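User: what does the whole thing look like in 3D?
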Amino acid sequence: MDIRALEALRAVRTHRGVTAAAAVLHVTPSAVSQQLSTLQRDVGVQLTERVGRGLRLTAAGDALADAAVDVAVALEKARAACETFLEHPGGRVSVSAFQSGAELLLPELLTRVRALGTIDLELLDEDVAQDDFVPLTDRVDVVIAHRPDGESASAGWAQSEPGRGLVVVPLFREPLDVAVPLDHPLAGRDAVRPEDVVGEDWIAVREGFPVAGVLAGVSSGTDRAPRVSQRINDFHVVAALVAAGHGVALLPRHTFGRHPAIRLLPLRGIRAARRVDVLMRRDRAERIVVRRVVDELIAMTAALDRG
Amino acid sequence: MDIRALEALRAVRTHRGVTAAAAVLHVTPSAVSQQLSTLQRDVGVQLTERVGRGLRLTAAGDALADAAVDVAVALEKARAACETFLEHPGGRVSVSAFQSGAELLLPELLTRVRALGTIDLELLDEDVAQDDFVPLTDRVDVVIAHRPDGESASAGWAQSEPGRGLVVVPLFREPLDVAVPLDHPLAGRDAVRPEDVVGEDWIAVREGFPVAGVLAGVSSGTDRAPRVSQRINDFHVVAALVAAGHGVALLPRHTFGRHPAIRLLPLRGIRAARRVDVLMRRDRAERIVVRRVVDELIAMTAALDRG
DNA sequence: ATCACGCTGTAGTGTTGCTGCATGGACATC
DNA sequence: GATGTCCATGCAGCAACACTACAGCGTGAT
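Assistant: Here's the predicted 3D structure for the full assembly of 614 residues, as structure tokens:
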């Protein structure tokens, strides 16, 4: 029973296919396919089944993939057991964050981790759809992700059920405020209610991306649906559009609270917020250096609302 | 980090040397040595150190070996997870027992396991010194071993501390009675006391073998040491010698209670007994078929004194 | 009907891990 | 103090394994 084959099985599950799995494992699909077949021959049970032109794990394959997580965790614990005898646990840790989270967190994180000494961080900004955060954990040690407030962590992140190989560490809750230009009629207000702003032209994020659904909550207290005039993912572009008077938008408070050309108005009456979490593969989370990095993130965000 | 290398590390620890480890792994010492060096290069910590002309694990190596046990257990759990989807979990299970235990248990065990169906047993009788039962678990799935009564399991079996990779399942406690020939002056008694028999000529087992120390307990209540005239390990030879009037001996009650030519006299006043345990490597114990076999052993001996 | 996509075999190749043997250090014996 | 034995380790050679490249085939989309 080969470790690499178990790894391949996990990858096929999370990425729903041999080809995608092969990509993250940096091998050809043929190699993954062969690993699966040898694994299958070894255990004597059907592990995968064709569905359409794709592939899916059987119940046995699913169980084995779950067990494979424990194997990977045990292996990483073994490595960690040795690292405790090293005076300077070094190594490379990759961290990815969605765009605005990266802006808010990564500079200070890099400063703090540099101060720790021997860990060298590899920062990435990955702007992906909501469903693609979890697969990212196969390529990146620490994934900083966000999701709409209100969902439970296990509902927000697929495969976060215990044993499924995902560790979720909540960092903070960040309110989403209504951004208006400085010369907007509401700009002088301390806060707004949904009915105050539901009639505006809205600039939203693309469908499928995190917090896209939050805007729908604005209309929940009213009888109208918000009118979305633009769909822009980059919050800085959104802010520039708002500043220029092309509409209003929901923007994260901590990242854009000090923007000079727009005004952020808290929403009263509904919970408009996103939650920022750290996602990790359970085995990666065992690495001491990874733990250190996450500890820094927790310390950095301790002052923020943990909600 | 290779599984086989971790396995090699464990073997080097239990067998105290590269050569002995290589023997149980069915490879050359050179291969084991190379596995250790690649493992060492991988983790970056010294794992072994020369001591005399031999080799010993460092603290780091010891910790890694402990962690390696968990890896092996996780791997075996993975295999077991697949086997639950198999309707007939089959496979080979090897069982070894010390000589008299084998005589008492193995015939019925074989009958019972045959009745279960697809498991094929590989029986072995291994008469080894007390310290050599634990290393046996590397070659045999289920080791039936015995030890003097009164010792705790962790004292009796090296490496049985939690995490050390050994599972101990107590089976039963078997009294050791004084065997005398039928025409012996004491043969009519229901029981004897140490002072009754301490002056006899004793036939004992060789030093270092299980229950060798129990005879010393006979003299504890008296001021004399028992006179050992012969040292014979095979209980049937011992019984024949006793029957021929060449001395008395301590023999296990359940195995020799019905011997026609000797009489077994319970010892009053001291606890003269041995304990029979099942020893397994933790990873081997995870196999479903191994569990089945052990369950049969437990059921077979349920009627005996579990002490 | 054609194309595109995805998984799976097969042949070829590069790497890996093992064996066999020689070396050097450590303990025991004479 | 010299010799022999035992044990771990390095090196060369070899065999087995795992991956890549490519072709084939089934499925779904255009």
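In plain terms: Chain B has a mean pLDDT of 90. Chain B touches chain A at residues 1, 3, 6, 43-45, 47, 59-60, 63-64, 66-68, 70-71, 73-75, 77-79, 81-86 (CB under 8 Å).
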